[in-house]
């Protein structure tokens, strides 16, 4: 099936919802499907392996059922089990036909011996019950690549603007007040960019950004950091019930009064909804970050996905909604498919590695889509469907990558009536959530756990950057939340 097919069916979609998670590869999360009844998926065959620098071979392996978060007991707090995913690390991982994942992990992270094989690990439906249901009922895209062979922010910028950019934090006037303070040295790590997001090609009434933390759109596009026009009706919480009254009062001028959960329930979703997961959360009441960024517990991510899915299924908007779940980049985890080359003036020789991607909705065919996508497919799909002048909007983005991108119309078909309800997905996660919450609330103060209760706090590089972003928002006169 050609991806250019389905543009007419795309016009039947009235709402597109995007949830972009963090740092997992396709084989790591969905590669098991090939061996579990979905042989059409280009996943794991059982022959995949990597060797370390000494020649020891590490085959791909299935994680234990209780290994949903990564923590090596007794490891030093400065030793992270988050695999490297910088451009230089990715180059090492792709060496010798994707044969450098273990070598890179060992060299860059110096893990305990039992964890040297970590990048070769993969999950199954027993670990990821929500993904397992969605994969079998809707569309798995097994050729969705991150946009660049590198880390989080360039890939997220590509998903918003079709290009990357350098942080401009050190150039901004509102940081002058921080000169000669402890924050000054950290300015180069504050993720503040000036790319023009696709939302500029839409009317403000057409889209809304939902987040748990400061919205990534504010980090990407300076237009949405303008304190004279903060567009509060375009930014809202994911779930207002999880927000304290004090926070609501503090942020009343910059955040809308509803949430994604509210809008879905009332049938007031806008044409485009973009959801940021919870990148960093040090509160006691709930399990920690649910963005799936290692070492976060993937069960927290499963719960977030289930909340989004159930909110949509029970929404008056469901029959005309398209939900896309994908990941910004592979996070240093093994994938057996080499990224294809690209020559579009971006400065990158290839796309990034494959990432998990699921397309969900009552008009989505139940099948495995082998067509190539990268993150700019999100922009192309949204603008072709909702821009008043689709061709002009695509051209205005000024991105060769967007212009050449496919759209998602090809995964669509007639409205379906054969979608299974998934059984007791919530029950499978309820016991885990109750246990994790009880452990956290038993602590004397805010949790110090990056991935589960009672473990040492070691923020990932991305969490440190995001914390700096929140401080930057406060320094500029914006509150730390959306």
Considering the chains and any ligands shown, give keywords for the structure.
alpha/beta, eight-stranded mixed sheet, two-stranded antiparallel ribbon
What does it look like?
A hairpin with a 5-residue loop joins strand 2 (49-51) and strand 3 (57-59). It is globular and about 60 Å long. With 482 residues, the chain is an alpha/beta fold. The protein has helices at 7-10, 26-30, 87-93, 95-98, 101-109, 129-137, 152-161, 216-220, 245-250, 260-266, 298-313, 376-386, 390-396, 400-404, 425-441, 461-475; strands at residues 15-21, 49-51, 57-59, 61-62, 121-122, 139-141, 207-211, 235-237, 272-275, 321-327, 357-360, 367-369. The strands form 3 sheets. An 8-stranded mixed sheet has the order 8-7-9-1-10-11-6-12, sandwiched between helices. Helix 7 packs parallel to helix 12.
């Amino acid at each position: 099936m050609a991806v250019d097919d389905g543009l007419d069916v795309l016009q039947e979609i009235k709402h597109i919802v995007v949830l972009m998670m963090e740092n997992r590869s396709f084989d790591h999360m969905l590669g098991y499907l090939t061996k579990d009844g979905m042989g059409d998926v280009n996943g794991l065959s059982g022959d995949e392996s990597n060797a370390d620098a000494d020649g020891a071979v590490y085959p791909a392996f299935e994680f234990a059922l209780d290994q949903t978060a990564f923590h090596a007991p007794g490891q030093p707090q400065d030793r992270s089990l988050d695999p490297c995913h910088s451009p230089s690390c990715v180059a090492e991982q792709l060496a010798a036909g994707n044969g450098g994942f273990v070598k890179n992990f060992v060299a860059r992270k110096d893990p305990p011996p039992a964890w040297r094989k970590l990048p070769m690990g993969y999950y199954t439906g027993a670990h990821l019950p929500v993904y397992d249901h969605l994969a079998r009922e809707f569309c798995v895209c097994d050729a969705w690549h991150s946009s660049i062979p590198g880390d989080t922010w360039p890939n997220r910028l590509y998903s918003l603007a079709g290009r990357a950019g350098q942080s401009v934090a050190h150039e901004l006037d509102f940081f002058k007040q921080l000169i000669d303070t402890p924050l000054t040295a950290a300015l180069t790590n504050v993720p503040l960019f000036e790319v023009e997001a696709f939302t500029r090609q839409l009317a403000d009434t057409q889209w809304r950004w939902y987040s748990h933390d400061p919205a990534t759109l504010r980090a990407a596009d300076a237009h949405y950091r303008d304190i004279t026009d903060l567009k509060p009706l375009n930014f809202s919480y994911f779930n207002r019930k999880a927000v304290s009254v004090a926070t609501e009062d503090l942020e009343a001028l910059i955040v809308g009064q509803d949430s994604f959960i509210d809008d879905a329930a009332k049938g007031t979703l806008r044409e485009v909804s973009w959801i940021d997961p919870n990148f960093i959360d040090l509160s006691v009441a709930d399990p920690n970050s649910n963005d799936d960024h290692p070492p976060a517990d993937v069960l927290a991510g499963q719960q977030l996905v289930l909340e989004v899915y159930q909110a949509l299924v029970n929404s008056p908007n469901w029959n005309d909604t398209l939900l896309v779940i994908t990941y910004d980049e592979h996070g240093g985890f093994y994938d057996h498919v080499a990224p294809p080359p690209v020559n579009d003036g971006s400065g990158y020789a290839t796309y990034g590695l494959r990432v998990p991607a699921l397309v969900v909705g009552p008009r989505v065919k139940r099948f495995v889509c082998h067509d190539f996508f990268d993150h700019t497919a999100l922009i192309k799909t949204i603008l072709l469907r909702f821009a008043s002048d689709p061709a002009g909007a695509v051209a205005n983005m000024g991105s060769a990558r967007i212009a050449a991108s496919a759209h998602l119309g090809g995964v669509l078909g007639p409205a379906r009536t054969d979608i299974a309800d998934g059984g007791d997905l919530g029950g499978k996660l309820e016991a885990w959530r109750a246990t994790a919450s009880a452990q956290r609330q038993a602590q004397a103060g805010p949790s110090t756990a990056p991935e589960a209760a009672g473990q040492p706090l070691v923020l990932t590089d991305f969490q440190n950057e995001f914390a700096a972003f929140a401080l930057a928002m406060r320094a500029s006169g914006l509150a730390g939340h959306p």
